[in-house]
Each structure stands twice: as structure tokens, then as C-alpha cells.
Amino acid sequence: MRLVIRANRLVDGSGAEPTAAEVIIDGDRIIDVFRGQGTMARDDDQVLSLLEGTLIPGLIDAHVHLVGSGEPGDAAFGVGDVMSSIPTVTLNCFRNAQRDLDAGFTTVRDAAARYYADIALRNAINSGALRGPRIWACGLGITSTAGHMDREKVLPPHVSLPGPSAVADTPDEARKAVRQNLRYDVDFIKFNATLTEHVRRYGGYCAPEMTAETMQALIQEAHWHGRKVTAHCYGGDGATWALDAEIDGIEHGFYLSDSQLDRMASQGTVLCPTLSVVGRFREFGERALPVGAQNLELWRQKAIAHAWKTVRRARELGVRIICGTDAAMPYVRHGENAYELEMLVEAGLSTHEALVAATGGAADGIGFPDVGRIEAGRYADLVLVDADPLADIRVLQAPECIALVIKGGEIVVDRRAGMASTAGTAA
Question: 285: exposed, middle or buried (C-beta count within 10 Å: 0-12, 13-18, 19+)?
């Protein structure tokens, strides 16, 4: 039986103005959208009339780490996973993914996990064995010796950690690391183009993590196999070399220059600024710094001084900006993902631009064309908001305002008590 959803106010994720509409769903896909008054429902259709609120696409968080909760003190991205079994790590990922789904985020892009837990969870959810959001997964983030994601840099020289690793210091090693991830059918590739750890003590902003030649080989290898590539990258030479190699996306980017932003706009490179991290830096001060981090206070202040300004300039220069929180960092909790939209609006995006950054724009930016918009052919991932997010984007942070979450045509969260809605078959 088809499901027909009638909404008095629909925002489709493309940037188009809100309208009344009827969404026709067959199975897990949208097969048609009829805008305006009237009906396309057949006599045997199930009809859900949503008389109040705003119907939007399922939201997308384009930068999460499911292995970490976001609670301060969670060491999942240090060596905390060594103290837990692999099943425990994966179960923690499952818990965090459910929190994202409950908040209306029907798709998340996991930007590096441990032990390929993101792949296992993605496959279990896609098969229907578990409830959770759609996961766009990269497997292991590719790093360099002493790089941002080299776990062993915090250990004494005689200690080595178990488990899969993706440390690449040469072009050949980078190609191999990409192929190791391809073994598990990853959806994209993530690597580290810059890092701050070694320059913080000198008051620096960031330094390249890989050579230009290594980045070139890594990105070429991934592109050969149809995968987009994004990088942990703050600016400087590492950003320039990544753009030279035609990278698809940059994460964070707090210190990108205007010339680099111009190149991103012309090349179609997307920016995922993860302002949630800096917002929590500002809100919680040194308590929001990662556990065990050294010489980070000055860098924290620099991030606060630059991040919003860089996003504002990116918007002015025409860079596509997408929503990603970096959930798992201290106080950047799963389930509170919509805080990022508030930060984007603070940086100069309109509420509608911010919503597109978390729906259709994010889908385009990460290369997942089946999600992000309410249009024929896409997954029937929808959220009913008991308010108008275009009037106040902060309503998306209130669980009571996320009245209904539909994933693949099925209701997975229902908080509609008191809202006006009707259900039945077509009259």
C-alpha cells in the first residue's frame, strides 16, 4: 500500500520556498510530489494528513564520529578503545547513531572510526537488522606518522597498539591505505591534510601533515575508484596542496585564506566547517578541550577568533557549505546535532541556507544522491517539525519540536501528541 503524506507546509531541501504539498511514497522511496492544493491519492492509499508544522527532508550531519559520545572525558579518540572490546566499541557506535536518528538526522557521514565499526553498523542498518540512520562511512581515517590520527604518538616508544591502522608516509603507502579501506566498500575516503599538534607550542595555526605528492597519490587512487575525498584541514600549505590535487571537500578549514576559498568555489570543493566544536570551545572554555591535549589554549582562542569569519567569507565567495558537527568532540554530543545549524546562521547563512546545508546541499556535497530532498526517486526520509525552522532555526534543537521522523517510508520516531494530524485511507 502506498503512503500519501499531505502537508500544509513543506520545505523540500532544494532552497525552494515552502508550499503545501502531497508526497507519494511507495516502499522506501518517494515516487512523486504534488505541490499545491488537491490530491493524487488513490482510493486504496494510506493517507497521513499533517495539518500543522513544517515537513522537511531528513537531516544530514556530514561529520560525526560514532565511536565517541561527545561527553567530556570520553577518550574514544585517544586510546580509550584499547580499554574496550571491539563489540563494546561497536555497540557504542550503535547507541550514538540512535541518538542522531531520534534528533531527526536520518543520515550521518562518519568521518573515521575504529576497527571498521562504522562499516559493520552501516551494513547492519542497511540490511534492516538494526534501527539507525543511514551511515556514509569511510572506515579508517588515513594519517601519517605522528599525525592527527596516529594513536601511537601519545604512547612511549616501546608500546604499539593492536588493530587496523592507516598510517601513510609516502605516495605508495597512501595508495595502499586507500585500497585497504576499499576492501570494506567504504563510501568515501578521509585523510589528514594538516595538523596543529606540532606547532601549538610555537603559536602556529597548522602545518602540513602529508607531502603534496602523497596527497596527490591518495586522491588520485580514491577518484579512480569513484570515491570522493575529504580532509581534516585547517589551512596553509596543506590546504593548497589538497586543492592542487582536486580534493572534493575540506573539514574544519578555520584558517583558509580568501585565495583558497576562491579556489574552492571555482573547483566545487565543499566546506564542512564543524562550527559546533568552536561553539562549545567558546561556551565551555578549557573544559571543551580534548583530554590530554597540550598547548591547546592559545589555539582554542585562535579558532574562536577565525572560524565564524572564515565561514562568512566562504559564503560570500560562493563556497558550498555543508552541515557537520564533529560529534564525539567534548560537549559536541550525538543527538544535539542541530546546534550546528544555529552556528551556521551566526556565521551569516540565512535560516533557509542553513537548512539546505543540512539537507539537499549536504547530500550533493558528500555525493549521496538518494537523500536530502523531498523529490521523486529519493529515499522517503522526512521530519515533521512542530514549528517553523525558517523563522527560528533553533527549534530543531528541541526534541519536543521533532514531532515525527520517517526513514524509508516508516515512522521511527513519533512525538505528535497534541498536534493536529489525521490518518486513514483516501476518501
Answer: exposed
Please state which of the four CATH numbers 3.40.50.150, 2.30.260.10, 2.30.40.10, 2.50.20.10 is assigned to the domain occupying 3-57+372-425. 2.30.40.10
Is residue 161's pLDDT more than 90? no
> For residue 305, what are the contacts with CB-CB under 8 A and spacing of at least 6?
none
pLDDT at residue 425, rounded to an integer = 59
pLDDT of residue 427: 45
Amino acid (one-letter) located at 66: L
CA distance 400 to 423: 21
- Of 288 and 117, which is predicted with more confidence? 117
Rounded to 5 degrees, what angle do the CA atoms 358, 97, 133 make? 60
Q: How does pLDDT run across 296-306, given as a tens digit for each residue?
A: 888 899 999 99
**Domain 60-366, CATH homologous superfamily name and number:** Metal-dependent hydrolases (3.20.20.140)
The confidence score (pLDDT) of residue 37 equals 67
Round to whole Å and give the CA distance between 265 and 249: 11
CA dist., res. 82 & res. 76, Å (int): 9
**Cα-flanking dihedrals φ and ψ of residue 3, to 5°?**
-110, 130
* Euclidean distance between CA atoms 252 and 274, whole angstroms: 6
